[in-house]
Amino acid sequence: QDELVESGGGLVQPGGSLRLTCLASRFDFEYYALGWFREAPGKEREEVGNIRSGDMVTHYADSVNDRFTISRNNANNTLWLQMNSLTPEDTAVYYCAAATLWYRTPTRNDYKCWGQGTQVTVSS
Predict the structure, then answer these.
(1) What is the DSSP letter of 63?
(2) DSSP strands (E only) in 25-77
């Protein structure tokens, strides 16, 4: 069945960078909109950004704009989240998710498939 698996999390110092990877097993990966979410302790899961299918248009939350970059390689069924200038407020479990949308920006309810998450801890 369809599966998303995140990797690349870990411990990083404030101001550092980390690159998360999400691998998908679906054959029609290129037709899915993809998103990155995070869930910090005591807080609701929030979307940090997404990338559309087809035209690869990206959107980012205000809290990560200009620091995080989302990219994808459809040939390898791979999604990345490049995180720069990390702060302790970025500490969370990060999840990737997929939505069956073509040339459309997903909303929260559009995501039907989720990964298990990878822990990112920003601390000195």
Answers:
(1) T
(2) 33-39, 46-51, 58-60, 68-73
